Amino acid sequence: MPSSPSPRGRRPDPAVDAKIRSAVMDLLLQRGLEVTMDEVAAHAGVGRASVFRRYATKRDMLLDALAQMFDIQIAIPDTGSLTGDLRQVVVDTLAAWQDDRVAALSRQILGETGRDPAVADLVRTSMRDRMARTWAVYDRAIERGELRPDSDLWLLTDLFAGLVAYRGLLSLDLPDPDEIVRSLLYGFAPAGR
Amino acid sequence: MPSSPSPRGRRPDPAVDAKIRSAVMDLLLQRGLEVTMDEVAAHAGVGRASVFRRYATKRDMLLDALAQMFDIQIAIPDTGSLTGDLRQVVVDTLAAWQDDRVAALSRQILGETGRDPAVADLVRTSMRDRMARTWAVYDRAIERGELRPDSDLWLLTDLFAGLVAYRGLLSLDLPDPDEIVRSLLYGFAPAGR
DNA sequence: AAGTATCTGATACTGAAAGTATCATATATG
DNA sequence: CATATATGATACTTTCAGTATCAGATACTT
């Protein structure tokens, strides 16, 4: 089958695409998910109809923007020890939540997962991808004997992600990175078991 | 100052109060937070105005309903060991999330937390109260030497609450209760540290 | 008993915002 | 040149929260 049925009339203007995309990103960071389509069009300097020609619904527009946002690479630490690597991940994550705008938007996105399964899908997939990319850290740790080989790594990562999400959503302070790492690796029972 | 300035006209009908309250609870479980005020009035068999006379905004109405929901007592286990007590808490919590309607509503409430600070306040306060009520479990455990005396108990409880909230929001399966308890108490490092 | 304030259900109105429709104009294919 | 689609502008439709008004009911005050 022919891949391009040869488009007939005037082609969509890529400049308009770009203007809309960047307006959405801008407004998302400025004012969170509660943005009106008129605002987007106005901020992009573009006709309202052109926005709706690209996205059938506001939800589609936001999903596209969120997918972009999650599509940023994350650094994989290699400090030589699991404690060091984990600490790095924790510190980086906590640092991101320090930015008020990032924190506010993260809260809203997490919140949206509770109402829209498609957002939940997006977040779930993105988080899993991201975490799977740090698997190297755990592989090395198991080789070095710093991690039980039978560890449920998803549980490990989700305990941390969950803590951040939960406290973030409720605007509770996050504890010291070392405290977190220690709890995850050694638990709350007294030393020596 | 006089406590009651003596109300003049017709008094609000307690029966109407009750009908509205129960209609809200009903609809919340049936259809989640996305309920219209007309539906509430209709389902309660009550005039629309009577709803707005009691709650200035829909938000107020929902906050009142949520406060009621959180105001249910939770059993405090005392099995004789921290492992047993914790396991009980975990099992009970996971059981609640098994009910699809409870899960869906919990997701939505957690989600609302990301958009409305008042909801976040309510949830935070309720969760803290509830968890503080289980403090006895940890006091006993510390006495028995099953828990480090310097433990950050909020971190312990929030690691668990966070895991449930995070996986619940994203509709991910929760692990085996024993697995959770073991991770919290002993961590992911190999035995013997 | 009279007077007045407030509740009650019913109904209509206002305003915001998503989504649809239409139009004149611009730009691309054939 | 003919046709098809994009563009911005503008107006319309629908849904829903919140407001306003009304006639009738109820309870307090004098």
From TrEMBL, chains A, B:
<dbReference type="InterPro" id="IPR009057">
    <property type="entry name" value="Homeodomain-like_sf"/>
</dbReference>
<dbReference type="InterPro" id="IPR011075">
    <property type="entry name" value="TetR_C"/>
</dbReference>
<dbReference type="Pfam" id="PF00440">
    <property type="entry name" value="TetR_N"/>
</dbReference>
<keyword id="KW-0804">Transcription</keyword>
<protein>
    <submittedName>
        <fullName>TetR/AcrR family transcriptional regulator</fullName>
    </submittedName>
</protein>
<dbReference type="InterPro" id="IPR001647">
    <property type="entry name" value="HTH_TetR"/>
</dbReference>
<dbReference type="Pfam" id="PF16859">
    <property type="entry name" value="TetR_C_11"/>
</dbReference>
<dbReference type="InterPro" id="IPR036271">
    <property type="entry name" value="Tet_transcr_reg_TetR-rel_C_sf"/>
</dbReference>
<keyword id="KW-0238">DNA-binding</keyword>
<feature type="DNA-binding region" description="H-T-H motif">
    <location>
        <begin position="36"/>
        <end position="55"/>
    </location>
</feature>
<feature type="domain" description="HTH tetR-type">
    <location>
        <begin position="14"/>
        <end position="73"/>
    </location>
</feature>
<dbReference type="InterPro" id="IPR050109">
    <property type="entry name" value="HTH-type_TetR-like_transc_reg"/>
</dbReference>
<keyword id="KW-0805">Transcription regulation</keyword>
